[in-house]
Please model this.
Amino acid sequence: MDALAAGHPEPAHPHLAVAARHYTDIDHRDGLARCLGALSALAAERGDSGLAARLIGATAATRAIGLSPWPAVAETERRVTERVRASLSNEEFTAQVAAGRTQTTESALAQALSTLGGPAPAETW
Model:
């Protein structure tokens, strides 16, 4: 997330892949939602607005159990959502977000990690 915020998206993917693996291992839904949100930002940065919108939907679905993002995370995600919404037609944005809401957290993560880069590195940190 720090790499993305600093404008260096390339190092973000391997770190997010490792974080997602660890959060999955302990079923940490808040951490998984943060990973999905960050992957949405990475997808938007790479110009894949459709994937970014699906991940926005998957992030919201993951949080539907009553999770709220931290204020700084919420602001970052709001800016990404505005950017993605502006890059797609209203119909396409709505359809992609809806599609993301139907995905499981795990399938959304797997799709995003596969689309945006290779497998998670073997090293943990």
